[in-house]
Amino acid sequence: MLANFFIALFLAIPEPILRIIFFYKRRIIIDNQRLNFQSQVFLSFIEKSLKALGDDPVKIRTEREKNNLKNLSAKPPIKVSTQDHNLVIDGHELILREYIPESIKSKNSMLYFHGGGYVIGSINTHHTWVEYFASKLQMKIYSLNYRLAPEYPFPSALEDANFAFEWIMKKYNCEAKNIILCGDSAGAHLAASLSNYRLDNQYKSSKTQLLIYPMIDPSCNSKSQDLFANGFLLTKESMHRFWSLFRGNISDDENPYFNLMHQEDLSNSLDTLIITAGFDPLRDEAEVYAKKLNRSGARVRQLHYPDLFHGFVNLTGLRACKTAVDDMIDEMRNFYE
User: Fold this and answer.
1) CATH code matching the domain that covers 2-336, chosen among 3.20.20.370, 3.30.450.80, 3.40.50.1820, 3.40.1380.10
2) Is CB count within 10 Å lower at the N or C end of the chain?
3) What is the structure's pLDDT at 31?
4) How far is residue 208's CA from residue 296's CA, in Å, rounded to a whole number?
């Protein structure tokens, strides 16, 4: 209760006052980008608690479920109801959560995949974000609780995603082209992996994918991985660990649905909108993937938020994050319509 009070107090403090209170903090400028100050203060607080969790995926997963960032998220502008559907694949039960805004203005729907490096995260940790997303888009969103590593390494999540896509088409008699694929971080990787898999195997396909700061390359050797290796929520060490736990065997590094940079033919790729953040270890690999898509002839656009960090869509209680998210949603709507 006390923690909630201090969070609310922190979020309410205007930035000029925040700068006076934290006058001793030097502004962070890296690679000609200046980190938003409210975000900088927030990240300095949260870094200590993240270090205390260590690197046990089960412990991190449990803690993340308990603290689902509800108090750090903006409230949806219109009411959104939810319904959980139980799906069974190979004896495993999955939950597909349907978000239904009270006012729906789009003929499209969305299949959404949460982030968390394929190791942590769930439909619950991303609930407030997806609820807000659905309310702003005024569109039905289906959020999938796919299987996680290390218990279920690659390609389990891809199998789950493909199963859910087929289920939505059959259950609601909707066309594949009207199902937008979207995800953040690992979820964006899953969306891109699924779109490539379906195209390569002559499945009916989506028309559009929206990739929010996607993880792309298991080598983790980009400039941004080194520049933002620590202190910006997602770390380079965490990315190495996530990829290692997600990898089923060493040959997966050559699999184009695991390592998206190994996808040779992208000429038939979906219309793609890629979102990047300035202070994100994944920034450069996302930009490389956008250029790769562009060279292939795909319709691709990148939206870049230079003063923000990985994970900002889940933190819309922070002013700059909410401004960016609202702008991103407007751009998404223009892109797929």
Assistant:
1) 3.40.50.1820
2) N
3) 97
4) 16
3-state SS assignment for residue 240: helix
Name the token pair of 73: 């998220």
- Cα distances from 336 to residues 107, 116, 182, 185, 199, in angstroms, run 11, 26, 12, 20, 19
By the 10 Å C-beta count (0-12 exposed, 13-18 middle, 19+ buried), 97 is classed as buried
Instruction: Name the helix (H) or strand (E) containing 33.
Output: strand 33-34
Q: Share the mean pLDDT of the chain.
A: 93
180 φ, ψ to 5°? -80, 135
Stated pTM of the model: 0.95
Write out pLDDT tens, residues 151-207. 999 999 999 999 999 999 999 999 999 999 999 999 999 999 999 999 999 999 999
Alpha helices in 209-255 (DSSP H): 223-227, 236-246
Select from 191, 182, 227, 238 the least CA-distant residue to 47.
238
Per-residue pLDDT reduced to its tens digit, 251-262: 999 999 999 999
* Residues 4, 11 contacting (CB under 8 angstroms): no
Query: Partners of 95 in the beta sheet?
Result: 86
Those residues whose C-beta lies under 8 Å from the C-beta of residue 291, and which sit 6 or more positions away, are: none
| ∠ CA 327-328-333, rounded to 5° | 100
Token match 């923000």: residue?
Answer: 308
Whether residue 148 has pLDDT greater than 70: yes
